[in-house]
């Protein structure tokens, strides 16, 4: 679901087997990345896709419809470039970032932080913050 209750910052609600959670999109900072995530969500690309990688106290990763960690395609084609912004940090649980196989290889996969992960700050495009989620 895409939108904002008050017409402010765009939000997406993700429905999971553990319940829904809402994330605030960093659209002004990472417009191409946010558009990719929102459009894939709107198209149902993520429907019934499992989190294929779970690392306790670090991240959960999903967005691969094959469930193997190898599938990933963006709305722009197979891959698109990073939008890493130094002001966006992985400061706690609930930050969503694009998962990729190296620089400029973003597709559909994403991860959600389960704790502060400052080591990821310069490597991954932060897309949103789950300021309304219980992770």
Describe the model.
PPIases accelerate the folding of proteins. It catalyzes the cis-trans isomerization of proline imidic peptide bonds in oligopeptides. With 135 residues, the protein is mainly beta. The protein has a single domain, classed as Cyclophilin-like (Cyclophilin). It has one helix at residues 31-42, and strands at residues 2-3, 11-16, 19-25, 53-55, 59-62, 95-98, 110-113, 126-132. The protein has an eight-stranded antiparallel sheet with strand order 1-2-3-8-6-7-5-4, with helices on one face. It is globular, with a radius of gyration of 13 Å. Mean pLDDT is 86; it is low at 131-135.
> What level of helicity do the residues show?
under 10%
N-to-C order of helices and strands: EEEHEEEEE
CATH architecture field = Beta Barrel
Superfamily (CATH H level) name: Cyclophilin-like
Beta-strand content bin: 25-35%
Mean pLDDT: 86
Concise summary:
This protein has 135 residues and is mainly beta.
Secondary-structure map:
Elements: E1 2-3, E2 11-16, E3 19-25, H1 31-42, E4 53-55, E5 59-62, E6 95-98, E7 110-113, E8 126-132
